[in-house]
């Protein structure tokens, strides 16, 4: 079976879709009789110190990153003659034209929205998205073999464009980690934010306002927030300075490889107060290190909240109650243990790719 992924790839700053697509392709190639490739729809730029980028280049997962034109993509599609194609960018006109090529040559293809069809996501650039979805986007989805959602919540909360197209749930995965021996300190809590600096999407303004409201408690109890990521870092710094939270909140750029491993190990809990998500890789990675999480409902990880690996945070009272709960050593260690086992049993890439291949076989048959 030959599988081709069309996706943008951003290695220099870190990106959830990039991480998911490269790892999916990598693990697909570990399955016998499967050959998987990525065609980057943008020009790929990266420092070779990024482990994910080295994986992409070293394992020959993708084609020449400078050949990102529509003609180059068409040529590679014709040369490879894949059995299955994944389109990871709905709002890209290249995907529309290439999907028409696939339909003409009777090549089966999947559309993966990565949360971009969620109703909350449609509120940003609402008019432009509505016009696109009802014109070019409809052509892309109409002939798809399936729309692949990352979890049931994303599927239930996404707009429906073509009612007759099959809908399936295929989550992302994470690399299996060795168990981390976590020892909760007697006082203090090192809270971590890891993701793109998109204030609206990631709900960073919500998080900063929570911290501002409970500033005195956080200072008195040695609770700090350290942020890592790329994007609108200047706007986030301005927001933190405006509220005089510089002593509590530390803002940093993206981290990769060994530095990222150390980041997860050295912090106590991850917080994410997103307004919408598909299946956030940052949360999956955090849980894989046994790092408990504090999450908004719209982060779309209700399952890990239900089993006690994460705590709900939909308002300022939830936030401070979650902080206080994780300051308790017994509650913290229990949540950490549940976090690791939750990922190990449900979201390892080996399991996820096995399920994906089975769905591909069903589609082809």
Describe, in plain words, how this protein is organized in 3D.
With 365 residues, this protein is an alpha/beta fold. The protein folds into 2 domains: 2-173 and 349-364, 3-Layer(aba) Sandwich (Rossmann fold); 189-346, Rossmann fold. Helix content is 44%, strand content 15%. The protein has 16 helices and 12 strands. It has helices at 16-28, 51-58, 70-80, 93-104, 126-133, 136-142, 152-156, 204-213, 215-220, 233-242, 257-266, 281-288, 302-306, 316-327, 329-346, 349-364; strands at residues 2-7, 35-40, 84-87, 108-111, 146-149, 167-169, 189-194, 223-228, 249-252, 269-272, 293-295, 310-312. A 6-stranded parallel beta sheet has the order 2-1-3-4-5-6, with helices on both faces. Strands 9-8-7-10-11-12 form a 6-stranded parallel beta sheet, with helices on both faces. It is globular. The two termini are 12 Å apart.
Please supply descriptive tags for the structure shown above.
single chain; 365 residues; alpha/beta; Rossmann fold; 6-stranded parallel β-sheet; 44% helix
Give a short synopsis of this structure.
Helices cover 44% and strands 15% of the residues. The protein has 365 residues and is α/β, with parallel strands linked by helices. Helix 4 (93-104) packs parallel to helix 6 (136-142) and helix 12 (281-288) packs across helix 15.
